[in-house]
Amino acid sequence: MNLVFSEADLAFQQEVRNFLVQRLPVDIRDRCACGYIVGNEDLIRWQKILNEQGWMAPNWPVEYGGTGWSLTQKYIAAREFASACAPLPTFGITMLGPVLIAFGSDAQKARYLPRILRSDDVWCQGYSEPGAGSDLARLKTRAVRDGDQYIVNGQKLWTSYAHWADMMFCLVRTDPDAKAQDGISFILIDMKIPGIEIRPIIGLDMGHTLNEVFLEDVRVPVENLVGEENKGWTYAKYLLQKERNFVARVAQSRHLVARLKIIAAEQRVGDGHLIDSADFKRRLTSLEIDLRALEYSELRYLSRELHGEKIGLESSILKIKGSEIQQGLKKLLVESLGMYSAPYENDMMPIDSDYLSIGPQHMQGIMAEHLYGRAATIFGGSNEIQRNILARQLLR
Amino acid sequence: MNLVFSEADLAFQQEVRNFLVQRLPVDIRDRCACGYIVGNEDLIRWQKILNEQGWMAPNWPVEYGGTGWSLTQKYIAAREFASACAPLPTFGITMLGPVLIAFGSDAQKARYLPRILRSDDVWCQGYSEPGAGSDLARLKTRAVRDGDQYIVNGQKLWTSYAHWADMMFCLVRTDPDAKAQDGISFILIDMKIPGIEIRPIIGLDMGHTLNEVFLEDVRVPVENLVGEENKGWTYAKYLLQKERNFVARVAQSRHLVARLKIIAAEQRVGDGHLIDSADFKRRLTSLEIDLRALEYSELRYLSRELHGEKIGLESSILKIKGSEIQQGLKKLLVESLGMYSAPYENDMMPIDSDYLSIGPQHMQGIMAEHLYGRAATIFGGSNEIQRNILARQLLR
Amino acid sequence: MDFELSEEQRLLRDSIDRFVKSEYPFSTRQEIIFSTLGYSEKNWKLFAEMGWLALPFDAQYGGFDGSPVETAIVMEALGRGLVLEPYLSTVVMGGGLLAAVASHDQKERLIPQIVAGELTLAVAYLEPQSRFDPADVETSAKSTADGFVLSGHKCVVYQGCTADKIIVSARTHGADRSREGISLFILDQDLQGVSRKDYKTLDGQWASDFFFSDVNLPASALLGQKGVALEAIESALDLVISAVCAEAVGAMAAANDITRDYIRVREQFGVPIGSFQVLQHRWVDMYMEAEMAKSMSDVLAMRLRDRDEDSALMVAATKVRVGKAGLVVGQGATQLHGGVGMTNEYAVGHYYKRLMTIDILFGNQDYHCSRYEQLEIVA
Amino acid sequence: MDFELSEEQRLLRDSIDRFVKSEYPFSTRQEIIFSTLGYSEKNWKLFAEMGWLALPFDAQYGGFDGSPVETAIVMEALGRGLVLEPYLSTVVMGGGLLAAVASHDQKERLIPQIVAGELTLAVAYLEPQSRFDPADVETSAKSTADGFVLSGHKCVVYQGCTADKIIVSARTHGADRSREGISLFILDQDLQGVSRKDYKTLDGQWASDFFFSDVNLPASALLGQKGVALEAIESALDLVISAVCAEAVGAMAAANDITRDYIRVREQFGVPIGSFQVLQHRWVDMYMEAEMAKSMSDVLAMRLRDRDEDSALMVAATKVRVGKAGLVVGQGATQLHGGVGMTNEYAVGHYYKRLMTIDILFGNQDYHCSRYEQLEIVA
């Protein structure tokens, strides 16, 4: 048993740190640090820097443009990126890439992977539908073969960043008679094809990241089918696995703790400051200790992976505990602001452009992040579903 | 809306208080106050005092020896009894009496009710069995008719105070072919009949209140059948209803709060005392506030009853919230003792007779009560079952 | 001992329930929220006609002599519909302050205007450094020959930009956070030296920060007596807390109903999600929290009406208990709705946001727990 | 970075697992608990033969130079069986103190006896007023011509009545609660002026309160140097906390396994109770808590071995996190067992009682949270 990283890994860590200090644009970092969403153009600006460095796709094999990092290096890099408040990698890198690499045709790989690396295409994920949220087997969007095209009809829901996307990877039903999980195919849709309509869904945080996507007689060339017809479920499950990486969000939570301490030291309460409140401090301490346990669990599971064990359940545990800690911290952040948690930035209202200058500078983004963060226990498999998964595997 | 009790009710309250101050034996009160179980002889001594006063069975109709108190007076009396740390009424009064009055024959009423009032018979309840805990419909103890007798064979579990009991009211299966709830009868068994064996179950608290009762060819006269054969389930349900009265245990929790404050003011921590610890105090405050909400809910539901509404769900709510508050308070009590929560009185060990004089006087009984209190969320319908009941009725 | 409503009280509640049902479906509320005022003047006139604006005031000023119990009945019913009209700031808080400190002449002039629906108020009593403490007043009002000069910064004044007049607490003497020397002034929006920054709040209402820069006030702007307003502010806050807790109780009941209806019909894995035991128990927990909150709110209103000696403790305890219950209900309601609960287009999230706001307004759980502890030591 | 055991460590763990499996079924443990000593001397001899008693000690005194990591491996495996033999008090705590403060001669004399299974120890470091603070020492040891006179009251000394020798902290100079002036003494039970009150503890072990009334101690009773023992006590406590947390991790794993097996077979309403979603999720929560505790315990042992600067914070954090997890697991395990969990005749309740005790021993969550906060300010 040994907690220390090797000299080589520590040198790597320093290299990542240096890169981030030198190349991560300050404006993008500051938006991330506040918990604001980074706009599409800013994201692409950053991705081009990343790609220049060759670090766009650490999770891809080297032959397709991956970094060739070891498991440990991937862990270290992800931690450093998060600590530096860099934007998270997007769907093309994290989700589509691995599926194409595993199941795509040579032509698909040759066409799409480089475009992802160069940020030529922004991808969105077309999975959820009304009536098929946590339960994807019930999806209804139909794709009917017509010559060398599929004609797609249906509706996708909760489609993050569809309004920025050039392309969508999408689950569609190709065999309506097959049972639940069978009969689903994985296809790639150009978002500029006629018949696609995107309607924004405004979140509780008044922000726009989610969309409904309506597909009406959308003609998709058959070469955009990934792998075999009716095998889409297999590929999607493979993806869901990938999605669960780095779910603990330890570095992000550390950042929230640091922010909380700054705010609590500034907020006056009577003669002292909020940080002097024993009750507030105790609740923060309790979360800090929980965060330690989470971080060490992540390391312990990484060690298992390094020893060749398959990781499955562990991701669910990290996701549940990680999201609960984040919500706890965000709740404390809101509480720390006192009355200044009530004013709420809101891009749909006719407000002064310098509106955000109300209240202390550090309040920026906190409530938005809190509201957005409530979704952390819902999206990507609600915590209830995660507990079901754990129960099924551990209690069977 | 009005929170004040009438002049008459306040006078009644004073009367009850005076009686308790004058007549409740101090040694019995002190045992109750510590959370210790009151022995059978002490219990009978107190019940004889109560019966002399005519207050043995407030929940019975006047013609059978009840007090004739109004709903409000019953509430006030129960509160005062609990505040004064009087023992709780026993099964004969709370459970068997109402069933005999509702469903028993004239002969049964004439025979058993006066004996209960005079404490001639101590009753225990023979419901649970191995495999039939929360789910009584699965009980297996058989009673086979043989002339003017039933021959009873089977096993009862968790039978509180069977070792003190003269009689047991008991659910037995009289029709083995009937479905689940049907085919069960309610019979009265003399505990001195041959064929009955009682084995103690020692609790986590090392105390002996629970038992297994084995019945082997026990011959019970048919006149001990209550009501109709195979209708026992109906009577048992009626009883379960009665059992839920005064489940909030507000006065007992108030007593725990008072005890906690005394201990926390005495326990030194560094330069100060435990009560100066902001964190400890905050957790206590939070429970005190929860207790207020519970008390006012009890009053609000009483007001509903006074207006002729039927109370059902409300008992489940009071039981769940009441037991959670009690457990919270008992946990704080244990914590308040520091290291002196580890020594544990234990009547099965060869220990000094003055063993209890270890540690501060106020530690007496706390851990026992904590351990015993863990059962509060299990017995009488676990809190999980109570939530199921609420869900079934509110979400149907 | 009786928690039931009288016949009159029931009629009052029913009339507001009817108003909410017909005038406040969620779609209408969404329109109102995006209107310039953020509430409906037509509705406000209706409130006046129905006599709801007159409820708590003395009969001699055109009121109906209602007690905190009647205010709680109104607020609970309004809470069910997340009603946006400024009843709390104008009638309960502004009106409560006038009733507590204003001179007979001032009352005679102002209260009938409120009752008629012609005067809306906002109360500016907090400052950036004060957190929730009404005694922490740094805004100053210095006496001049013919009045006062007001300077300072008041923060997060609900309805600050829509109200006809503002009531402002300012220090006329005494050290920062001293309980002595706080006075109340009533002023118009358009005085020289008053500037304002307006913004929407979490719960979709308007609020403002006010900046007073050597604002000349006439002597008549002083409400009641000089330097002794703190107790009046505190007792007005007691009434406001009772009212806002009742509003939360109404909002919780509605959120629980909406959630119950949703989980009964929404299917996943081929069955209604309300058939999953974990979701059932979570809803039951929300329901029980709402029950506890309702009991606290009812008792607080009665205690305040009866001026019971337990009132002060009860105000703090109720704000804590209701705040906690509101978060359990609001979070649970959004969680049980899944993705839908996270959108602005569906009612349940708005209940959550209002319940979250109420937990903060007039002192959060931490603040009132501390108050409870201090009051207990004194008692 | 590596959490896996080395080959040697795995063999160590497996050997103890085998011992627990063969020698510690619940029925045997019940017999041991009701025996006079409360543990088995036969087992203790076996521990010595297996070399487990030698693990943490220096090779020069007959030890195996094991680190806190090896101690954690032993304790976790013992925890699974709720093993009663006094490994914690004799080897980890008593032995740890000897290793930290005793002179070379004292070590040479005493440690081989421990290793051989011929000497058991108990440590008396707390007093009725001290709660969990090892610096709060009122017991005094005054210098005399040829030694010391010891007076005072030590409380809740685990194994106090079964140990061959007692190690006692006493104040040789300095004011109450001063960090200076605390010394350690080792003494036999039968000295004049030593009296003892023995009792069983919550978790079924023996403990004692000691009363010292002008007990004459020879100079040789002093362990190491006079007046400077506090830091040694604190670092021994760090090791003890690591060990007891590892024990708790083992106990949690066993309690979760027992509970899983129970809810799979126990039926209610015609189905295994493990098919109810609420019970499933509760068990999953217990499992996750045990996972968090395991990670903390592993890291703490490594930090202590590496003498990492984060160790002090980590000790406090681990005691808090493991304590909390232990209660969640213990309470959940008894609750999921229903009535059976509330009886003394079934194993699960004993896990709960030991986990509850561990949460208290060497400082409860409140104490270590405060310590964590103080250490963070200093850091």
Word description of this protein:
The complex is a heterotetramer, with two copies of chain A (396 residues) and two copies of chain C (379 residues). With 396 residues, chain A is α+β, with helices and mostly antiparallel strands. Chain A has three domains: 7-89, no CATH class; 123-230, Butyryl-CoA Dehydrogenase, subunit A, domain 2 (Beta Barrel); 244-394, Up-down Bundle (Butyryl-CoA Dehydrogenase, subunit A, domain 3), CATH 1.20.140. Chain A has helices at residues 7-23, 26-34, 40-53, 71-83, 91-103, 106-117, 232-243, 250-266, 278-306, 313-336, 366-373, 383-395; strands at residues 123-126, 142-146, 149-156, 167-173, 184-190, 196-202, 208-221, 225-226, 268-269, 272-273. In chain A, strands 1-4-5-8 form a four-stranded mixed beta sheet. A four-stranded antiparallel beta sheet of chain A has the order 2-3-7-6, with no helix packed on it. In chain A, strand 6 (196-202) and strand 7 form a beta hairpin. In chain A, helix 5 crosses helix 7, helix 8 packs antiparallel against helix 9 and helix 10 runs antiparallel to helix 12 (383-395). The longest helix of chain A is centred in the C-terminal third of the chain and has 29 residues, at 278-306. The two termini of chain A are 31 Å apart. By secondary structure, chain C is α+β, with helices and mostly antiparallel strands. Chain C has three domains: 7-118, Orthogonal Bundle (Butyryl-Coa Dehydrogenase, subunit A, domain 1); 122-228, Butyryl-CoA Dehydrogenase, subunit A, domain 2 (Beta Barrel), CATH 2.40.110.10; 231-378, Butyryl-CoA Dehydrogenase, subunit A, domain 3, CATH 1.20.140. In chain C, 51% of the residues lie in helices and 16% in strands. Chain C has helices spanning 7-23, 26-33, 41-50, 68-80, 87-101, 104-115, 230-265, 277-305, 311-337, 347-360, 365-378; strands at residues 121-124, 140-144, 147-158, 165-171, 182-188, 194-200, 206-218, 267-268, 271-272. In chain C, strands 2-3-7-6 form a four-stranded antiparallel beta sheet, with no helix packed on it. Chain C has a three-stranded mixed beta sheet with strand order 1-4-5, with helices on one face. In chain C, strands 8-9 form a two-stranded antiparallel ribbon. In chain C, strand 8 (267-268) and strand 9 (271-272) form a beta hairpin. Chain C is globular, with a radius of gyration of 21 Å. Chain C starts with 6 loop residues before the first helix and ends with a helix. The model of chain C has no long low-confidence stretch (mean pLDDT 95). Chains A and C meet through strand 9 of A and strand 6, strand 8, helix 9, helix 10 and helix 11 of C.
